[in-house]
Design brief:
Blueprint: H1 5-9, H2 12-22, E1 26-27, H3 28-39, H4 43-55, E2 59-64, E3 67-72, H5 82-118, H6 122-148, H7 155-188, H8 194-201
């Protein structure tokens, strides 16, 4: 069979070596996707190389509907006994355990590294301590000024203010409740909405001014 020189120049030998190394089925798209970045193969060149290798009997081809699958010729590999398969399964399980253990260790080390990177250095910690000391000194100075001031509010005066506040809040709530009840009675026979009623009579509510009755 005549072999165009450009097929091998585009990497049929590389594709053959790849399929033999991986020893698993691939579509032409898979081979193209896996080798294009490293070798710069074009999709058409990969398809032609696979077809040529299959025609030459160097790889096997299976057709599933409209898709073709290519894989290494298994006759080139030595037969594997059941004992060998069990040994390989055991080896795979052992390596899988090592991978899981290594992954766990990597995650722990990554967490430790992130914690260390987020921690303050000794110099940064000393600087922070000095800032906090200066802040404490400012608070002490402010406290001394407050204590030395002559216009302190006595406990009796403070209690009087609290009682007055409580009285005013109670009266506020009482009047608000009465106004709400009266307005509810009027609205029972009023043909328009509550909003229209308030606009017509010129009533402004606490809600209009974003005011809420404080707790006593």
């Amino acid at each position: 069979m005549f072999l165009p020189a450009f097929i091998y120049s585009l990497g049929a030998d590389i594709i053959l070596a790849y399929l033999n190394e991986k020893n698993r089925p691939y579509s032409a798209q898979d081979v193209f996707g896996n080798l294009q970045k490293e070798h710069g193969f074009g999709k058409t060149a990969v398809v032609k190389a696979l077809e040529y290798l299959a025609q030459e009997g160097k790889i096997k081809e299976k057709v599933y509907g409209k898709q073709k699958i290519y894989f290494a010729d298994q006759s080139q590999f030595p037969d594997v006994s059941d004992s060998d398969l069990r040994d390989m399964d055991s080896r795979i399980a052992d390596l899988s355990g090592q991978v899981q253990s290594a992954s766990h260790s990597c995650r722990q080390l990554d967490a430790e590294l992130k914690e260390l990177l987020s921690s303050l250095t000794t110099a940064e910690m000393m600087s922070k301590i000095q800032e906090l000391k200066a802040e404490c000194d400012r608070y002490r100075e402010r406290l001394l000024k407050i204590k030395s001031a002559a216009n302190h509010v006595t406990p009796e005066e403070r209690e009087k203010v609290y009682k007055q506040r409580s009285l005013y809040v109670k009266e506020w709530k009482k009047r608000k409740r009465l106004a709400t009840d009266m307005m509810g009675a009027v609205l029972e026979g009023y043909p328009k909405s509550k909003k229209q009623f308030l606009e017509e009579v010129g009533v402004e509510t606490d809600e209009d001014h974003k005011v809420t009755v404080p707790n006593i």
